[in-house]
Amino acid sequence: MLQAARASSYSRKSELEEFFLKCIDEARKELMRRRHLTMHKEKSERDRVFEAMLTNEDVLVCLYEKLFPHRTGIARSLGVPPGAVSEDPSLLAQLAA
Known about the structure:
- The chain has helices at 2-11, 15-37, 45-54, 57-67, 74-77, 84-87, 90-96.
- The chain is mainly alpha-helical.
C-alpha cells in the first residue's frame, strides 16, 4: 500500500511542476508577442539570452530535469533520442505529462 502511494505520488505532476510548465508556456507566448511588436528594434543581451533559452528544448528539458530530479531520464526511458526534443517542441509537454 505504501509503495503504491509512493509510486502514485512520483507519477503525478506536482504543483511546482505545473507552475513551471505554465510559466514556460506564458514566457513563450510573451516572447512571440514581443517578436511581432518589436521586429526592427535592437534587443538587449538579456532579451537575446532569454529568447535563446525559451527556443531551445534541450535547455528546457535539462532545466526541468534539474528542478525535478525524480523526472530525470523520462525522455530516455521513453526511447526519445538525445536532441530529438529540440526538433519537436511538443515533446517537452509530452514528457512532463
